[in-house]
Amino acid sequence: MYISNFTGELMSLKKRLILQNAAIVAIPFLIAIIASFVFIFISSYIFKVDLNYDSIKKLTDLQYEFFTADDNLLKGNPERLLQKDFQQYLSERLNKLNAYIVVLKKYDVVFSTKSINPIEIEKCLEAKKKNLLNNSVELNDGPYIVKVIPLIYSDGSDGWTILLAPVDKETSASKKLLYFSMGVFFVSFLIINVLVSINSSKAILAPLKKLQRAAGEISLGNLDYEVIEDGDQEIRELCKSFEQMRLKLKESVYTQMKYDDNRKMLVSSISHDLKTPITSIKGYVEGILDGVANTPEKVEKYLRTIHSKAVQVDSMIDDLLLYSKLDLKQIPFNFEKTDVVKYFEYCIMENEPELEKHNIKLEFQNNLVKETYAMIDRERLRRVITNIIDNSKKYMNKSEGKIQIILRETSTTVIIEISDNGAGIPKEALPHIFSRFYRADTARSKIKGSGLGLAIAKHIVEEHGGLIWARSIENEGTSIMISLKKIQESEDCK
Amino acid sequence: MKKILIVEDDQSIGELEKDYLEINGFSVKICNDGISGLNCIKEEEFDLLILDIMLPGIDGFEILRQIRDTKDIPILLVSVKKRKLTK
After folding, report:
1. Is A276 part of the contact surface with chain B (CB cutoff 8 Å)?
2. CB A279 to CB B9 under 8 A?
3. Nearest Cα to Cα of residue A312 among B15, B12, B54
4. pTM to 2 decimals?
5. Which of A27, A59, A356, A376 is buried deepest, with most CB atoms within 10 A?
6. Which of B6, B16, B55 to mutate to test the interface with A (most CBs of A within 10 A)?
7. Per-residue pLDDT reduced to its tens digit, B29-58
8. Minimal Cβ distance to B55: which of A294, A305, A443
9. What ipTM was reported for this prediction?
C-alpha cells in the first residue's frame, strides 16, 4: 500500500523486497521514537511526574554536591558524626534528598538512619571497589546508589561512612519509558509486518494467481486466454514469456490444423483427379463389352481413348511420386556448370515441334551480353520448363498462340521469363498457383493434368537455390519468372 | 425419335454416353460447357437432359435453377462421384 504509493508503477521484485525489509525495521523504529517523545510529554504535563532530563540532571548535581560537601565536611573531623545535633541535621538533610547514611567504626554500626544488616554492609563495602559509574547495590528493599568514604577516628581506629541513595523514581520511570518504547516498537513491528505482507500478496501473489489461472486455461486447451501483464517487473517478464509461449502454441496448433486440412484436400484432390480418367476407361471398356462399339473404327477409337486416359493416369501418378519424393527430399540433384543460353536454345528446339502442332509459336529472346553460367540439374530444370510450357499450352485461348522465353540478368542472377498470351490467371488465384493441386478454374475435369506441375517446378527451382514467381493479366497472358544464381566470373577463374 | 441433350465437359464421357443412347434409338446432342448447354435448352426442345454438375462457366445446379421454372423436362444429373435422378 504505502510502498507502492511512493515508488510508482513499475518496480522490480528485488527493489520491493529491499524496501519492504527496510520498512519493517525502520518504520516501527520511528514510531517508537515518536511514541517515546509523546510519552514523555504526556507524563510530565498531564500526570505531573517529573521525568524530564532537567530534573534528572538536577538531582545528580545535588547528589554530587552533597557527597563532595560531606567529603570535605567529614575529612577533618569524623567525630562530629557521633554528635547528636550533627546527626540530627544530617538526618534531616538526607531525608529531604531521600538518602541514608551508615557510619561504621571498625565493622560496628555507630550511627545509621536506615536499618541495615551486616550482609548489606558487606555488599556496600564491596561496591567501593567497583568503578564510579557502576556503584549501585541491590539491598533488601531495592537498588541503591552507594558511596563509601573511609574515616580515621582520633583514637586511631579506622571506619567507613556509607552514603546510600535509593535508585530514584526517575530511573525506574526511564525504565518504564524503555519498556514502553520497546512495546511500541514490538507492536508496530507486528502491525507493519502484517501490512507489508498484505501489500506483498497484493503486488506479488495476485498477479501470480492470474498467471496460474491463465496456465490452467491453456492446459485445458483454451489458447485464446490472454495472459495480462501485471505486478512487478520480474512477474511482468514472466507473464510476457508466458504470453509468447501461448502465442507460439496457438500458432503451432493452427499450423497443424492447416496441415491437416491440406492433407485432407490432397487426398480428395488425388481421388477426384484419378477418378475422372478411370471413369472414362471403365466406361469405354464396358462400351466395347456391351457392343456399343459396333464397327472396327469405333472399337479402335474406343481403344485409343482408353489408351490416352491410361497414359494420363500414368503421368499423374508419376507426377505424384515425383512431387512426394521432392517433398521428402529423396531426389538427388546433379548440378552441373551450364551455359544458360545454350541450355535454353536446346530446350526450345525440343519443345518447338509439339507446340507448332497446337499453333503456338515459341520465341527466344536473349538479353545476356556474354556467356553466363549457372549450376543446373539439366534433367530437373527441363521438367520445370516443360511444366510451365504445358500450362501455357493448356490455358491457351487465342488462335495464334505465342510463348516467349526471355533471358535477362541482374548482378548476381539470371532471370528466365516464360510468358504466354493465353487465358491469364485471375488476381485472387495468383498467390496459390504454386500450391499443389491448385487450379484457377473450379471445374477440374476440363484441364487434364495432375495439378502438380507448378508445385513440382517450385520445388525444383528452390532446390537450385533460385526463386519462381508469376505475373499475369487475365485474358492477356501469364509470365512465369525464374531466377537462378549465376556463377560469378571471379569464381570462374579460381 | 426422342431427343436428348448431354451437357458434359469431358468429351470422352459425353461421346460414350452418346454412343450408348444412339444405339438405343435416341437422337443426341452434346454441349461441352454450361453456357452453350443453357442456350441449346432455350433454343431447342428436348425430351431428356443429361447434366453434369461440375462444368466450366455455369455449373449444373445453376442451369437447373434457370430452366426449372420455364421447362418441364426430365433431367438426369450426373457427377463423377455419384448419380442422382431428379425432375
Report:
1. yes
2. no
3. B12
4. 0.53
5. A376
6. B16
7. 999 888 888 888 888 889 999 988 878 778
8. A443
9. 0.82
